[in-house]
Amino acid sequence: VSLAIPIVLYLMSAQMLSPYLGMVALLTLASGLVHSASFTGFASASSAAAIYMIISGKGMQFFKISLGMIGCVILLFAAGARMPEIFQKRVFTAVETGDVSKAGTFTGRMVLMREAWDIVDGTMILGLGADQYRVVSHEKAPVHNQYLLLWAEGGIISLLGWMAMLTI
């Protein structure tokens, strides 16, 4: 979703996607984001949209799109729709209070990322091997960061290869 939102915004600004169809796409993506109840996804998607709008210089367009989406959300709430309870608990509370520790599994994922940096420090060139992170992890779970997971399991060559594929 974090990647899809700026793509939809670009397609709308390049007039390759009609504003109405773009709004439907953005509302669909936003709905998926709300129902996933992922604080990381919410923060990433919001940041990606804001960064795109700043870089593209389409601030007024972003304002119009935001007003349209807010209007749609107000209509949904007026019609009786409610925010999913899990979203309220895991994301809305963290945003409202400004306390990241209330953001569901975010703090646990940060522990996994710190652990991954320690593992990468010792296996930077060759890596651990495919699906070995879970075996050596104190948490017995893979890190929820694709870059770190690839680097820890496949080494720097694996990470650079994956980044090259993304660049293409």
SSE topology sketch:
Elements: H1 4-13, H2 19-36, H3 39-56, H4 59-78, H5 85-97, H6 106-122, H7 133-136, H8 146-167
Helix pairs in contact: 1-2, 1-3, 6-8
Strand fraction equals under 5%
Number of helices: 8
Low-pLDDT runs of 5+ residues are none
Number of strands: 0
Query: Distance between termini?
Result: 20 Å
Radius of gyration: 19 Å
Helix and strand pattern: HHHHHHHH
The structure class reads mainly alpha
Mean pLDDT: 79
The biggest sheet amounts to: none
Structure, explained:
- The chain is mainly alpha-helical and 168 residues long.
- 73% of the residues lie in helices and 0% in strands.
- The chain has eight helices and no strands.
- The mean pLDDT is 79.
Short description:
With 168 residues, the chain is an all-alpha fold. 73% of the residues lie in helices and 0% in strands. It has helices at residues 4-13, 19-36, 39-56, 59-78, 85-97, 106-122, 133-136, 146-167.
What descriptive keywords fit this protein?
168 residues, globular, 73% helix
